[in-house]
Amino acid sequence: MDTQSLLHDLAGLIPPQRLLTRPGQVAPFESDALTSYRVRPEAVVLVESQQEVIETVRLCHRYGVPFVARGSGTSLSGGSLPVKGGIVIALNRLNRILRIDPEQRLAVVEPGVINLNVSKAAAPFGLYYAPDPSSQPVCTIGGNLAFNAGGAHCLKYGMTSNHVLALKVVLADGEVVELGSPSLEGIGADLPGLFVGSEGLFGVALEVTLRLLPKPEAFKTVLAAYRSLKTAGDTVAEILRAGLLPGAVEIMDNLAIQAAQAAVNAGYPPDAAGLLIVELDGEAGSVAADFERLMPLIRQSGAYEVRIAADDAERLRIWQGRKSAFSAVGRLSPDYLVQDGVVPRSRLGEALEHIQALSQKYGIRVANVFHAGDGNLHPLVLFDGRQAGAYEQAEKLAHEIVELCIRLEGSITGEHGVGMEKRAFLPAMFAEADVDAMHAIRLQMDPLEIANRGKMFPN
Amino acid sequence: MKPTSVAELQEMVRAQPHLRLRGGGSKTALAGAAGAASTLETGGLTGMLQYQPEEFTFTALAGTPLVEIEAELAAHGQYLPFDPPLVEAGATLGGATAAGLSGACRVRYGGLRDFILGVRFVDGQGNLVRSGGKVVKNAAGFDLSKFMAGSLGEFGALVELSFKVFPRPPAYTTLRAQYEKLTEALQALARLANSPLEMFALDLEPSDGGYAIHARLGNPSPEIQAGRIQRLKGLLGGDAQALETPQEAELWRSHREFTWLRPGSTLIKAPLTPSNIPGLESFFQQNGEAAQAQRIYSAAGNVAWIGWQGQAAVLDAALGRMGLSGLALLGPAQRTWYGIRRGEVFAQRVRQALDPQGKFHWSAGG
Ligand SMILES: Cc1cc2nc3c(=O)[nH]c(=O)nc-3n(C[C@H](O)[C@H](O)[C@H](O)COP(=O)(O)OP(=O)(O)OC[C@H]3O[C@@H](n4cnc5c(N)ncnc54)[C@H](O)[C@@H]3O)c2cc1C
Questions:
Q1: Does residue A37 register a pLDDT over 80?
Q2: Does B117 lie at the interface with A, CB-CB under 8 angstroms?
Q3: Whether the predicted interface score ipTM is above 0.90
Q4: Which one of A139, A374, B59, B239 has the lowest number of neighbouring Cβ atoms within 10 Å?
Q5: How far apart are CA A52 and CA A13, in angstroms?
Q6: What angle in degrees, to the nearest 10, is found between the helix axes of A390-407 and A348-362?
Q7: Closest CA in chain B for residue A103
Q8: Do residue A127 and residue B140 have CB atoms under 8 angstroms apart?
Q9: Considering the entire predicted model, what is its pTM?
Q10: Domain range for residue A359?
């Protein structure tokens, strides 16, 4: 690793105001949204063109210096945590929307584009970009791609991977490749499918072709309050069993409700033990027909209060509460860890009871907000990092939740990625041969293992 | 060779220098020759391993015929939303995945790659490798399951697959509209594809000297259907007609099974976007062998199914000029790949990792 030579050559490539090396300059890049981990990078390169990324990656390869691509740093798994002795390639300024093509319903964007800005640019054409992580006002398409980010509406519409048609990538050894095509159909192995979700371990995405969808013309958003979390969970199973396919099915527990209330006053019933949000969306006729089938189910599900959003403002208020839940929990506790495991949907109730038991066992508060329709849990483990040992205890609890998800034949992560935080669990979820095969692929893409070194794979 | 267990298959992979997989043999241009020494037939690896209707997921062995899977799903009101082709011709789950094929009704919810959750495959060293999982959402590890969709058995032998499924629509309605000019038909196609109407299929094909569009809607309840049909008619313009029930089913069956293909033709799949259609059509309207070609533009203009009887080189060159690519699926295969290849370097790197000796790399010669 020849960091000095790298910095020297970078200085010839990047103007000084965009090549940050002083401790005060690089400090904001020391961690991502998983703030318990911190590493100071040797330098941060604020790239503004695809060519600058390519040259920077080539230099890193030449001098064997690790790099971490970074979007907005909202990773909750330590994915954009810098690597010791390495540099950060910050992509926020590589953020041009190159093309919106309303006829073919696609957008060509650079990786630093903010998720929500794609939908904003597409809105005049009646189109939108479907994946909607709660962080969508800040997170980038590059970060979404790396983690195959999801959101409340991926039950019906799928994850990031289902919306990426093509990409241009610089691999970690400097070779530039183009994967996929603007068509929804392909032939040959699905190459974009493999790149999406590779957590920045193959290289850096430079340009992405995204699929846009016509905006749903109708929504019906229903809020149902329950005296027990389990009943809310059971209702989800009932809805799916009836053959309904809502755009979103979300659940929040009481702690999360309180947090959301305090933060944005979403108008949630404050005493509910479980709050179910079901949203039907799409073509007006089908939404109306599905609503007729959904409501009797909800009314017989044991909910003690049911509300239907009367207009767009009410609907947005409901979603604002849900989408602000993570940051809102920050009001209840100075620190928290978010878990992201998945369980089979029929075992949601069981998993939630188990998490409650763990919370009692450790004497640590756990708030739950989750993508119930997908079985994707988001337990927030609350702790105060200033208390000695509090982080370690919280992490232990969080790890027990991960193990629970593996036991139930689910997954250690639904959308936040393995990153730094769950890398020890990759071998618990996969057999040795599986991890070996993944690692062999990693070595082919990045023989020096300089791209996001230390992530995803166990140490 | 026809292994009846995964362990046996692993042994065969270790022992053989070159292997070509064969499922149901329904993709005649892609399947290895039945009974040939180097052909690995998956017909001994069949059966549903896990199906919990309330989870909307299943796991089955690769050699399981799709007919069986669809029947089992249908018994619980569920179906494969990507509408796999050639089911009646004997397609297997592994073969459909390896060929990466989706049918006309992929318009509504997406293609095969959007529904695959997990795979187990045997790599070139004979190792059994798993990727993905059995739950509907999973971001752990590299997504080799998606990669395998369309991999043509060239990176390993698929042995087990997990998919998500959706509730099956109770009924359908299909409208047909006829246009004199391609530009009119393409405008109608764009109007439909950009509308909030939730169509299952949207196909365009040459017909009666002009072009016909077939648009298929689900029919969730009779009360609302009349209004939706009116709306669809408005978007189609002209005198769109609803098909009677038996013709409706038969039309999509013929698209799914490619019964429209002239005997002796090669069927080529060419992914594209609607903007490529005028260029391709003017190629087909030239005199000579191109004029004989059959074609259906399916999935809202995202794929051309081409029935070709001429020289492979002519079509290969034409697709290449337009920056398109094609894959031979049925009939006499003079060549496998047509037009340009994309991302070969990247695929080659994956091959180096999974099958460094290239045991499964049968299409290398083109
Ligand atoms: C309040 C809050 C709510 C959230 N809600 C959700 C949610 O609902 N759903 C969800 O899925 N996630 C959610 N997240 C997690 C996070 O926002 C996502 O993982 C997001 O995709 C990260 O985007 P980013 O731009 O911040 O990426 P970063 O954190 O900067 O980077 C994430 C990873 O992507 C890699 N990367 C970035 N750009 C590129 C590129 N161009 N090429 C290759 N690799 C790249 C990085 O190296 C890193 O490994 C939430 C986070 C917060 C803080």
A1: yes
A2: no
A3: yes
A4: B239
A5: 8
A6: 160
A7: B190
A8: no
A9: 0.97
A10: 333-446
